[in-house]
Design goal:
The chain is an alpha/beta fold. Helices cover 41% and strands 14% of the residues. The strands form two sheets. Strands 4-3-2-7-5-8-6 form a seven-stranded parallel beta sheet, with helices on both faces. The chain has a two-stranded antiparallel ribbon with strand order 1-9. Helix 6 runs parallel beside helix 10. The structure holds S-adenosylmethionine. The site of S-adenosylmethionine has 16 residues, from helix 10.
């Protein structure tokens, strides 16, 4: 059941300034998710426009009120919500700008025989971001090894933006355990690391099934783990800084490996 929002001028203006902004933000978030349901969205748009009108004397909203809104376009809803969020002095996090409108249904997903192993990652943000990239780019599964934050970490789940529901995740006591198991299952396990004997990602041709191992933000992949892998891959660096953020490195490698594998239709796993 959807909530109905209706405020008289007297009731709305009786709230504190902060509460008024929160109400508007809540209504805009509801409008975002129910935008295409006209029966729900039409009265909600009217309530939002009314509340904006009630705020005619509010100086903090001068810039926002200077524009005339109809809320007929989805982008207008998002811009208005982001502008109000700024006034409310909220720093926008990715999870605050969670847009579901263009997501496909799970049946339209494609999956490839590529898995990701996270070796004792520290940052919940990096883990969430890698899960999101893995899901978006068609990986099968992510192994959260050792001290890597898991599903009980809210920041990780928020950063993954809903993708934790659409990709298999497994927590493993150690990275070694995950690697040994995947090697037995026929995966070619690649350490993604800046080590001297690493092959350039550009020169890499994946075999049938690929597992990529990503390392801790400060320590990289543990040396004993690199040795256990079948080979090491490096993303060629051309700048001043010696390494990329681990989430960025993961996305680049996944994009490349999935791209190479997807050229071979026999390797694709369709749901
Ligand atoms: C920030 S790096 C680790 C820091 C690095 N050991 C150092 O000394 O600066 C974290 C992880 O990102 C991945 N990574 C970052 N840049 C990379 C690159 N150019 N090639 C391959 N992996 C990279 C690796 O998996 C690495 O373990």
């Amino acid at each position: 059941m959807r909530k109905i929002y209706r405020y008289s001028e007297k009731k709305f203006m009786g709230f504190s300034e902060t509460k008024r902004l929160d109400i508007l933000l809540e209504m805009l978030t509801a409008l975002e998710s129910g935008f295409s349901d006209t029966e729900f969205s039409a009265p909600l748009k009217e309530s939002i426009l009314n509340c904006l009108y009630y705020l005619k004397e509010d100086e903090t909203l001068q810039d926002i009120r200077g524009k005339s809104y109809t809320l007929e376009n989805f982008s207008e809803v998002i811009y208005l919500r982001d502008s109000l969020n700024r006034v409310r002095s909220k720093n926008l996090r990715d999870s605050d700008i969670y847009i579901k409108r263009y997501d496909v249904s799970p049946e339209q997903k494609s999956k490839f025989p590529v898995v990701v192993i996270l070796d004792n990652l520290r940052s919940a943000f990096n883990v969430g971001s890698i899960i999101r990239s893995s899901e978006c780019l068609g990986a099968e599964k992510v192994y959260l090894c050792g001290t890597t934050p898991g599903l009980n970490n809210k920041k990780m789940v928020d950063t993954a933006m809903g993708t934790t529901d659409f990709i298999e995740l497994e927590s493993c006591a150690s990275t070694e355990e995950a690697i040994v198991r995947l090697q037995k299952e026929g995966y070619q396990v690649c350490a993604i690391e800046l080590v001297s004997n690493a092959i350039s990602l550009n020169d890499f041709t994946p075999l049938k099934k690929v597992a990529i191992v990503l390392g801790n933000e400060s320590l990289g992949i543990d040396e004993s783990i690199v040795e256990l892998c079948d080979l090491s891959l490096v993303i060629p660096m051309h700048g001043w800084k010696n390494s990329l953020n681990v989430g960025t490195a993961g996305a680049i490698v996944l994009y490349d490996v999935v791209g190479k594998i997807s050229c071979n239709s026999e390797l694709r796993i369709d749901n």
